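Before relying on records like the one below, remember that each one covers exactly one chain. Contacts with other chains, cofactors or solvent are not represented anywhere in the record.
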Amino acid sequence: MKDKILALRAEGKSYNEIKAILGCSKSTISFHCGEGQKEKNKIRAASFRLKNPVLRKIDNFINRGVSVKCRDFQRNRDLGIYTNGRQFLFNIKDVLNKIGENPKCYLTGREIDLSKPNTYHFDHIIPVANGGDSNLDNLGITCRSVNIAKGTLSVDDFILLCKEVVKYNQ
């Protein structure tokens, strides 16, 4: 099979043409023809990826509206409802200016190491689920574990919950 595929590729046939002639899948053709393909894919993926993990994290937060838009469409397609996702009126530079040189968690005051992107989250201070907006004033940086614990609670409700936990465990 490999010899036939390589011979057809040498003739200049496309994957679709080889697929039609031999009746095999494109992945089979790619497997036999793709020497060095993994390296090419790694290089291609790296060129599209943002090098700085902080910028990547901010970019993911800002562009999260696209996935929300798709998810909401899937959830509500039977109802005929289509939401447009979040609209952000700020960019990465605005977020970097807001968090500053030495960012701290807005809930705990802990210092955040921006070089470790798995340790912090960008959060809506007033959750969107509770009527908060997606604007720069409603953006905060938090420790990952704290943000997960907060969920969709308001800051006041979260503080009350924390006080109850401390009181119960004393």
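Residues 2-48 form one domain.
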